[in-house]
Amino acid sequence: MTDTTLAPTGIRTPVRPPVLRRGDHVAVISPSWGGAGQFPDRFERGLGALQGYLGLTAVPARHARATLDWRSASAEQRAEDLNAAFRDDTVGAVLCAVGGDHAAQLLPLLDWQAIRERPKVFCGYSDTTVLHHALYAVCGLTTFYGPAVLPQFGEWPDPDKYTLDHFSAVTMSPRPAGAVPRAPYVVDDFVHWNAYPLRSRHPRPAPRRTVLRPGSAEGPLLAGCLPSVRQVLGTPWQPSYAGHVLVLETPEDYGPADADRDLTHLRNSGCLDDLAGLVFGRVPRADEDTRRRLHAVFLDAVAPYDYPVLADVECGHTDPMATLPLGVRCALDGDDLRLLEAAVTASQPPS
Questions:
Q1: pTM listed for this prediction
Q2: According to the model, what pLDDT value does residue 282 have?
Q3: Which of 160, 176, 197, 286 could form a disulfide with 290 if both were Cys (CB 3.0 to 4.6 A apart)?
Q4: Hey, what domains does the chain have and what are their CATH numbers?
């Protein structure tokens, strides 16, 4: 059973994990889709990149390479991998192999006590949103909405430098990371992960961030994938949105009608009522007309409110990708998003 007594009633001081250091062991889990087993070469390349570029020793969890229909493994096996990673004091971080659509199946099976007592860097994006929100809501843990092993660290021939640098700045330094850098380029051409011969993807100039509604705001950061946040609404694992700078991003092939549906659900749930500010990630492979229509949908969804709104930020299903720490105080000012606090602590967690 889930220990819902730990759930907060509002903003509280989050639990910061220890800083990730070169030489640390990193557990790699597959909480949703079994992509690691379906694309073994890319998975191995991602594991090697963690060592080669960041000095981290990647250790795949027991079921990380499993494939079971549309999932990697059963809910019990996937939860077992996540619980084991948090219980293991030799593990410095837990990274997700890839997203999917079924991480919510793990929520009733997680060892919340172990997660709260042994905080560590937890990173991933997309469907991993449900785990981010649950760990933040139930345990107060600062987690990291950022790169995954297959799509980012497994990129050929090398992971993106912006993505590596920002992940390192946020998780491997006990100092505030400051402004989320503006990337002058975007990499959005499609190369299938099984395509041979391998070829690199090519960058193009990135669209500028778009200030949809000007203003300034401060508050703890809450990030997630828009269609995935809906999976925890109305459950014991839903975090409080009030007072937060909410960062939402969307997957590929996600259009204005999809955004209209999902934002309506958030608004009807009251999640948009008391935000400090709202940020939207860059939509991958969206043409100018789609971007314009999405911006109109975003503004329509928040028309009753007066907080600042920024779009086209480098996060989520886009390359390069920033690493965004949940619960860390941030400042939104025009097209600038700044992390004001360290996301990790130099001290070790209590034994």
A1: 0.94
A2: 95
A3: 286
A4: 20-179 (3.40.50.10740), 209-339 (3.50.30.60)
